[in-house]
Design brief:
With about 240 residues, the chain is mainly beta. The protein has 2 domains: about 10-100, Spore Coat Polysaccharide Biosynthesis Protein SpsA, Chain A (Alpha-Beta Complex); about 115-235, 3 Solenoid (UDP N-Acetylglucosamine Acyltransferase, domain 1), CATH 2.160.10. The protein has 3 helices and 21 strands. Strands 6, 7, 9, 10, 12, 13, 15, 16, 18, 20 and 21 form an 11-stranded mixed sheet that branches. The chain has a 5-stranded parallel sheet with strand order 8-11-14-17-19, with no helix packed on it. A 3-stranded mixed sheet has the order 4-1-5. A hairpin with a 5-residue loop joins strand 2 and strand 3. The longest helix has 12 residues, at about 115-125. The chain is elongated, with a radius of gyration of 23 Å.
Length: about 240
């Protein structure tokens, strides 16, 4: 993509483009759908997951689209259909104009456990604004009104607490930490840099560091879990390193 003037999304409504695709610049485009454009940002070609050395550009499909009603006519009913492999290439084949919008704000592909984990950390650390923070906020603690926190518990922000959580005596929570709805942290538990989904129970004196704990999981008394993804059936390592 070369240096055309920035395109405002509002201009889509007055343009002749049937679709506008947001684009994001990445260092390695080999895991994404690469989008080539001309000097006016009109899309010329889509290439799905090319080898890094063969990619013609580092601009990739960022997954946000504006479609004219006309575009919907080309989508088959009652079938699995992918825009990036079906609709958009077909529009180009039919000579229908598709525009690439260079997005330059925060963007992440959260399709792996590592990037999902880092996204949650980034939101709590305010690396980008988010509509997903909720409840009252006191010194970096996001908390619903129906949460019970023992006076001796120590919460170090940023921490987000879901509804009906119970934080026991002497519990230590060191953010970034997300605790989902209906979670129970028993006395003396120590949670650091971790994501708890809904209905998780952490036993007395258990220690968790850099983990994703799926819903309906119980972590036993004094159990230590580090750098792991835990579901009801599987425990696996959480890849990547903390910033």
């Amino acid at each position: 993509m070369n240096g055309a003037n920035p395109f405002e999304f509002g201009a889509h409504c007055t343009s002749r483009y049937v679709a506008t695709i947001s684009l994001n610049w990445v260092d390695d485009p080999s895991a994404f759908g690469v989008v080539e454009t001309d000097e006016s940002q009109k899309v010329q070609r889509f290439t799905e997951k090319p080898p890094r050395e063969e990619a013609k550009t580092n601009w990739i499909n960022a997954g946000t689209y504006i479609l004219e009603p006309e575009a919907l006519k080309y989508i088959p009913a009652s079938s699995h259909y992918m825009f990036e492999k079906g609709l958009f290439p077909n529009l180009l084949d039919m000579g229908r104009p598709v525009y690439g919008y260079p997005h330059r704000g925060y963007w992440v592909d959260m399709g792996t456990p590592e990037t999902y984990f880092n996204l949650n950390r980034d939101l709590l650390l305010k690396k980008t604004e988010s509509p997903f923070t909720y409840g009252s906020v006191t010194d970096g603690i996001y908390c619903k009104s129906d949460v019970t926190v023992h006076p001796s518990a120590n919460l170090t922000p940023p921490v987000m607490l879901g509804s009906r959580c119970w934080i026991g005596k002497g519990v230590s929570v060191t953010g970034p930490v997300v605790i989902g709805d209906d979670c129970f942290l028993d006395d003396g538990a120590d949670i650091h840099d971790t994501l708890l989904w809904n209905n998780v129970r952490i036993g007395t004196e258990a220690v968790l560091a850099r983990c994703i704990i799926a819903g309906d999981v119980d972590i036993g008394q004094a159990q230590q879990v580090n750098h792991s993804i835990v579901t009801s059936t599987v425990t696996a390592p959480l890849p990547g390193s903390q910033e």
